[in-house]
Design brief:
The protein is about 0% helix and about 40% strand. The protein is an all-beta fold and about 550 residues long.
Length: about 550
Amino acid sequence: MSGSVNRAVRRRTFVLGSAAAAGSAALAGPLAESASAASFGWSDDGSNYVVDTGANLVFKVSKTNGDLTSLVYRGTEYQGYGGKNSHVESGLGTSTVTIAQSGATILISVAYGTLRHYYAARSGENNVYLWTNKADTSVSATRYIVRVKAGLFLNDEPDSYTYAPTTIEASDVFAKSDGQTRSKHYAKLRVIDYDHIGWSTGSVGLWIVRSNHEKASGGPFYRSLLRHQSADGGGLYEILYYGENQTEAQRFGLQGPYVIAFTDGGAPSSSLYPGTLTTSWADSLGISGYVAASGRGRVAGVGITGRNTAYPYTVGLANSAAQYWGSARASDGYFSIGGVLPGTYTLTVFKDELAVHTASVTVTAGATTTLNTIAIPSSNDPSNADAIWRIGDWTGTPGGFKNAALMTYAHPSDVRASAWTGNVVIGGGSETASFPAYIWKDVNSGLLVYFKLNAAQAAAAHTLRIGVTTAYANGRPQVTVNSWVSSIPSPPTQPSTRSLTVGSYRGNNYTFTYSVPASAWLTDVGQYNVLKIDVVSGSGTTSYLSAGTSIDAIDLLA
């Protein structure tokens, strides 16, 4: 059926790839007969629904399985590498696929078991809007992959997957001939750090604009797959649930919209970004689980006191059904988080990535919950404790430690990494930068910290603290102070997957405390006391997959 003929045709429904004229009763909901712009409309080529946005974009969706099988912008086909389509997860399989048009909107609906997926096009836009409603665990992960043909975008960014000559871990971490490492896991950015990801040639840009991630898991600081590029093409991801180094249970329900957007080379319009994107045109489309703006609320706080203004502060809302976040204003801590589903949430204030305050807040549809000034108690921030010495600062991250920044987009064996050794002397002025961000049982366990105490300090017991941000294979620190040896602490709850080698330090922040008796210190105040930090665990394998942990801060309290 040609596009021109189709524009005069009323709505049709196709089930499991078989065409069947269905008349006006084919789909429940408000979608009515087409009333389209000059070239806006849809057609059926026998295997796919073909949508012309009336701008410069034509795309096809398989009537059999809901895959995106073609993505043509300005006459160039961008979809496809390695014989694979773009799709939810790795492809859903045989599905019920239907299409309908209402004025300036075309909606394609895909039903696969309990999962519902949607594609929408708007007249005159070079965008494909997507929603995914995952109801249960029948689909293992929730992601959408846009698969792009090889050679259209040249990219070898640090957060881009590039097949290289040597596989160094599992089947997904590689070393290039120059010693640099690449993996699809090396996202580099946290969710809070980006609105869109993609590629540009300078004259054409292809992007995925992320959703608000309200039904995703892991919070604002989670890192996941963003894009990859290999010999046979590239991929852009919207990850809605991924189990790698995951700190939260999976959430279910409708997630979106997220947007496949084409541009003339620049970034996608900021009107598509999370927090600014409005989709009132989708309110009446009958999308399963869809909640319009009128059914949502807002949380606003007049300010936050007790902050350390050297660091950014984020306010998060989370319950078992949804998650949201917003940045606190640097000047006074004011924040506003909109588009929130009704319910009761745990509100968490983060100093960088360290939780320093929690409270409960209830959100009502159509209303703003206004909070008075939040006062962070001094004791909630471990940095406020008086310390004899401290390595790093308490931020919930390994920021400032040796190799910390590199580890978000490289393997620990990368040629760019400094040696993982790092004994330090307190008072030298470069303790944090010299001390490694990660410690492994099989790589650099036994790191030493040298320090002196005055007579009064040496006569008293002290508390030693080691903060960690995640751990692999139950790795946790046991300490020796001179000849005094601590007990082996119990492992805290941490993700069970790889973390330190796949670009993520984001696990569950935890503080180990050790009560060191006065008898442990040297009596000669001119001598250096020696703190030895070992990583202990009976699990893990060897080298960088041995038990390990990421360091937040180390201090000896006064």
